[in-house]
Design a protein that fits this description.
Blueprint lengths: L5 E2 L4 E2 L4 E2 L4 E2 L4 E2 L4 E2 L4 E2 L4 E4 L20 E2 L4 E2 L4 E3 L3 E2 L4 E2 L4 E2 L4 E2 L4 E2 L4 E2 L4 E2 L4 E2 L4 E2 L4 E2 L4 E2 L4 E2 L19 E2 L4 E2 L4 E2 L4 E2 L4 E2 L4 E2 L7 E4 L4 E5 L10
Parallel strand pairs: 1-4, 2-5, 3-6, 4-7, 5-8, 6-9, 7-10, 8-11, 9-12, 10-13, 11-14, 12-15, 13-16, 14-17, 15-18, 16-19, 17-20, 18-21, 19-22, 21-24, 22-25, 23-26, 24-27, 25-28, 26-29, 28-30
Antiparallel strand pairs: 30-31
Length: 238
């Protein structure tokens, strides 16, 4: 552990934890075994890093975990108060995780992405670089978000077409895919397995039941194409 580390009171650090130069650890932080925290990372009060997942007796998607790789927090990351980062999560450099956010196991978050207050990113997701996931949005398990994706507050993504009743659903869970530059407005709902292509836009409050084509704006319930996205809004023109 480096000599430049600044640490608050009542911190719990497990075995074989690596903490980089000039890192800051707040009060009451819990860091589980094997975690790697990069240089100049900041972990705020009451955060939990490297937590092992729990399994309910009737859980449909969480298998028993015999071993998970340790969590890796990259250089310059900021982890907010009471945020929880599970085991085998990998955050690249300069990721920002706001207060009360949850990032589950086997999640990869690429550099300079912002995970907003209260956001939940479920297991087995990949989030690209320079994304922005705003307050209280929900990214379901098995989803992929590419670079420069914007997800507004209270967006809900889903991965179960069977609503958790029949055994047919087992093995058919499928998250959503949001390709490079895709944008989703507040309170929109994306149904399982749907893809939003590059620079596609979903208007606030919409329910997406079909794939959204590249550079088109959809709105409504169910969402339908309203118009093409203006070229001055394309990511390539920024």
């Amino acid at each position: 552990m480096n000599q430049n580390l600044r640490m608050g009171q009542h911190v719990v650090i497990g075995e074989n934890v690596t903490i980089g130069e000039d890192a800051v650890i707040g009060h009451h932080v819990v860091i589980y075994d094997g975690t790697v925290i990069g240089n100049q990372a900041v972990i705020h009060d009451h955060a939990v890093i490297g937590k092992k997942p729990m399994k309910a007796h009737n859980s449909a998607t969480t298998t028993n975990q015999v071993y998970l790789l340790p969590t890796i927090i990259g250089d310059g990351c900021i982890i907010g108060t009471s945020a929880i980062i599970y085991a085998n999560a990998f955050l690249e450099n300069d990721v920002f995780v706001a207060d009360l956010a949850t990032i589950r196991e086997r999640v990869v978050i690429r550099e300079k992405t912002i995970i907003g207050r209260g956001v939940a990113v479920e297991n087995d997701c990949t989030i690209g670089a320079n994304c922005k996931l705003e307050t209280n949005c929900y990214i379901c398990a098995f989803s992929t978000l590419e670079d420069h994706v914007f997800v507004a507050p209270c967006v809900v993504t889903t991965n179960d077409n069977y609503l958790g009743r029949t055994k047919e659903r087992f093995g058919k869970f499928k998250g959503v895919t949001i390709k490079k530059g895709g944008r989703i407005g507040a309170n929109a709902t994306i149904l399982p397995g749907k893809t939003i292509e590059e620079d596609g836009v979903v208007a606030a409050g919409s329910i997406v039941t079909k794939d959204v084509k590249s550079k088109e704006l959809v709105a409504g319930s169910p969402a339908r194409k309203i118009r093409d996205v203006s070229p001055d809004q394309w990511l390539e023109n920024q």
